[in-house]
Every structure is written in C-alpha cells, then in structure tokens.
Amino acid sequence: MTDATLSLSLISEHRILDKAAGLNEPSGLTLNHDGSALYTVSDDTKAVFRLDLKGRLSITESFFIGIDDLEGIAINGDGSRLHAVQEETNALITIDIATRRELSRRPLAAMTNYESIQRFFPDPPDNKGLEGITVNTRTGHLFVVKEGRPGLLIELDAEGNSILQARLLNATNGFVHPTVGPDNLDFSGLSYDAERNTIWITSDKGQCLNHYDWEQDQVLQRLDLVIEADNKPKRIRKSEGVAIDPARNRLYVVSERDGRLYVFKIHTNG
C-alpha cells in the first residue's frame, strides 16, 4: 500500500425508489461482471433488482426469488452467480443468474468452524445479524459482515461451506468515529476493491465509508459520505450498500432511507 489518501467527489445522484416494483428499501449493492449495471435487493421484497449506472430499473433483468429479508448482495468472479445474506437467519444464499434459481441456502450455524464465532451470535437473534457481503475476486472467498454488538467481518470459502477466519471491527484495527461511540458504530455494506486488495465498508450510523486492509487488519482511511445540497453539506442517510469500480475510479452508494443511488469519483491524493 502507498501513503496516498483517497477522496470522493459526487458525480451524480439518482432516485431509484420504485414502489410499484417493490424497490422500497434498497439495502445492498453490487456491480455486475463487466461494470455496466448494478444489482440491489430490498429487504421487504422477494426480488433481485437490476439497475443501470444511472439507477434506472430494468424490469426484464430483475427477477423474483422465494426469500425476503435480504440485506446484502454480491456477484462472484465470473459473473455467473449472485450471493446474498439474510439477516434474520444469518444465512448465505447463492443464486444462478442465468436460470434465476436459488442454488443453495446455508446458515452460518451450518458451516464448518461455526463454533469459532458462535459466541458473537446470540440465540434468539438480536437483530444485529449479517448485513453485507462481497467476493474477493482474487481468491473467490466470500466476506460477510455482522452489523454490530459486536461488528464482525467473517471470511468464508468460495462455496460458503466453511468459516475460514473472523475479525472484530473495533478501535484496535481503526474502526472509530468522532461522534458515534464504539458500542453504536455499525456496519452495513461491503465491496471488495480488486485494484487495492482492500474492502470498503459502509456505516449507517457513522454515515461514512471505512477503507480497510484485511491483510494488515487496519482501517487505512475513513471517508465521510457528504454531498452538497442547497449549497450546504449533507450526509447520506442509511448508506446500506456500496459497490466499487476501481478500474474506472467510480464508487456507488445506495441510501435505504432516501431510495437514492449516489455515484462518486475516487481521487488519489499524494
């Protein structure tokens, strides 16, 4: 890693709310294989929604599935499968894009090595379960994040059969915020950055992005999600999903609260 810092500038924002289609609470985001479109889910609708890069919904490329309460979504390395997480059951769901069929559904509790993280998942669940997912396209491994109490980033094998390792997200590795206390800081969306071999992690309450290096186990930088509105700075509310396109220096963030897609340019400074 270099010592360069990154900054974001807003390119555009788009309203993506579509109540007729059931896109009411966009809560996850992933870029498709060639960077030409986005997928999102709405936790109150049993569907996967496809958007173009300006947030326009494609009805023909969107599809219903037999699961609700989906909180995060990610695409695998070759673009053939979508992975999603269901918060209530802390389950990983895998979907074949071509056939639009659910291939598997596996709770964390059914995976090998679950005992290594079991203490962080109370029974019954406390509504602080899995919120985000991404795919390390270099290894094929999956990363899922527990929202809070405590925040936990978990690495799974490519098939989602086994828990490889997990890391607490706290002050020790740089997950701190100037106005949100450690017990309240939460984590929602994930996006793997193939160019930098890092992970971008959104925080709803922190209204920010954490740029995190898994290898170093360290937050490299916190970037506040601030846009100009009526010539005043305004923070993005409930940033539930993030997708990065490092080849084009673009970063996409979705707001569950406002039903909007924000498109940023990434600048490298120094």
From TrEMBL:
Keywords: Cell membrane, Membrane. The keyword Glycoprotein does not apply. The lineage of its organism: Bacteria, Bacillati, Cyanobacteriota, Cyanophyceae, Synechococcales. This is Conserved hypothetical inner membrane protein. The keyword Nucleotide-binding does not apply. PANTHER family: DIHYDRO-HEME D1 DEHYDROGENASE, PROTEIN NIRF. It is found in: Cell membrane. One of its GO terms (cellular component) is plasma membrane. It comes from the Bacteria. It holds the Pfam family SdiA-regulated.
